[in-house]
Amino acid sequence: MKYVLIADDNKDITDILSVYVEKEGYTPLIAKDGIETERKFEEFSPIAILLDVMMPLKDGYEVCRSIRKKSSVPIILITARGEDYNKIMGLDIGADDYIVKPFSPSEVMARLRAVLRRFEKTDADENKENILRINNMVVNLEEYSFMIDGKRVPLTKKEIETMWTLASNPNKVFTRDNLLDSLWGYDYYGDSRTVDSHIKRLRAKLDSVAHPAWSIKTIWGVGYKFEIEPEDF
To answer: What are the chain's domains?
Structure first.
């Protein structure tokens, strides 16, 4: 049985999302606070989580951080807050998507289908090489880890996926829309500022360890690329 965990203390919202989740062919699980969300995640191993930010006992950000330490399960944050800062914060701590109330249940299901497609694609590729080594850098998609000179750099799930996408295609320029589509999915309704803020935070973490042979370059007016000397590749 495939479960989708719906975490929200508003019964009207959980009731309507449950109906739509069932129409998608999944079994809905309901949690009314952050503690119950974590307990049901451990007990039922859902295939995805629709996670409200403003919940009792533990908010959605805390729950997302906690779950992300042990699982890459798709997480869509749902909140009444629409400011860019909160959107970026949610994505930076490991959420796969972000939707603001009031919302259309059909839109939530479109987002759910998109994150599940990306997750299932990763599962289908699990027997392929999932470790990328370039110079002093190692990106490991099996463990979702990132290392420079043998030192682990604490990147979020989305930051590791960003490094994999860029470094797997050295010197290829990705537009902001390319990165939105690749990392958040075609159905993600974000904008270029999300990508810029994401790259800025990623660079700040990378700069904690020296990496003179490669870097993430900004191509002004276009996007970003992973740049490396050919002989070091």
So the answer is: 3-124 (3.40.50.2300), 131-232 (1.10.10.10)
